[in-house]
Design a protein that fits this description.
The protein has 177 residues and is an alpha+beta fold. The protein is built from 3 helices and 7 strands; from the N terminus they run E-H-E-E-H-E-E-E-H-E.
Length: 177
Amino acid sequence: NKTSITPADCNTVETDAGVALDLVNRHRRDGYVFGLIRVADAQELHIGNSSVLYLTLDVLETECSVLSRRHWESCEYSDTYSMASNGTQAESYDFGQCKIITYTSQLLKKPQLYGFNCTLSPVPPDLLECKDCPVKVEILEVTEQHKNTAAKALEKFNSEGNHTNYFDVDKVEKVVS
């Protein structure tokens, strides 16, 4: 029984990559849902009645928190990405690459996440400068003051509303100025 790594099937790799990215997003506990930009590389190892898929995906953060458990295709990308690509606004957004390994038993036909490593970095705002931008937006480092401000805002929301549940700040992900 010979095993070898071969390029993944071009007809199914986009679907397989989307499923793999969804598995990664469901596994994560903080941050924003990654959306698929493109499949950079895809290799497959066939072992008997099973296969292992090795993917390298270019990703971009969406506006959905991973805690929302939404599928990446149902999430919006920030206006920053669409505006930055057509040059109408400058802001920082996070993009990167995920290396993902999935295992699929041909009997069950359901891929399982074997492992992943995602590396993100913001695009420096000076790379997205536009001369006619009305406002320059910056992503700030989250400080204790920002956490306190968010907590006070939720405290006010809880006291003014007639809710059956009260809300509390768990984590401040991003501060925009």
